Amino acid sequence: MSDAPEPEVTAPEADRPTKDPLRRSRTSGAWVAVVLAAVLLILLVVFIAQNTQDVHLSFLWWDGSTPLSVALLIAAVIGIALTAVVGTLRIWQLRRRVRRESR
Q1: Which residues form a coiled coil (predicted)?
Q2: Main-chain dihedrals φ then ψ at residue 94, nearest 5 degrees
Q3: How crowded is the C-beta side of 34, counted as CA atoms within 13 Å?
Q4: What backbone torsions phi and psi does residue 55 show, to the nearest 5 degrees?
Q5: C-alpha distances in angstroms, 61 versus 34, 86, 97?
Q6: Which sequence spans correspond to the domains of the chain?
Q7: Cβ neighbours around 81 below 10 Å, total
Q8: Are 30 and 19 in contact (CB under 8 A)?
Q9: CA angle 75, 54, 68 (to 5 degrees)
Q10: Rounded to whole angstroms, how far apart are CA atoms 63 and 95?
């Protein structure tokens, strides 16, 4: 047996907070968003190219024909806009309620 002092016990490397060089950043998030947008645009172009046949549409006083892809895209955009309006109104309502209760 040796009379040498025992070395200090330190926390394992896993317990020490270190900066991860591969951590997420705004730039990496933007890159993922650009790639996803590009994939969605490619799918949109394929959708439009495959649905070029004309369809007859009637809505209230409007009557006409348009390519099927255009009609479906217009319907989707209107649906998204309505959802955004309802969501915005709900957010305003909740913010107003929080402001009232915090006074």
Answers
A1: none
A2: -65, -40
A3: 6
A4: -125, 150
A5: 40, 26, 41
A6: 24-101
A7: 10
A8: no
A9: 25
A10: 42
Q: Model pTM?
A: 0.59
Task: For residue 39, count other CB atoms closer than 10 A to its CB.
Answer: 10
Nearest to 51 by CA among 74, 70, 65, 38: 70
pLDDT of residue 15: 59
Beta carbons within 10 angstroms of residue 73's beta carbon:
15
**Model confidence pLDDT, tens digit, residues 43-65:** 989 988 898 899 998 988 889 99
Residue owning tokens 């649905």: 51
Provide the Cα torsion 27, 33, 36, 41; round to 10°.
-120
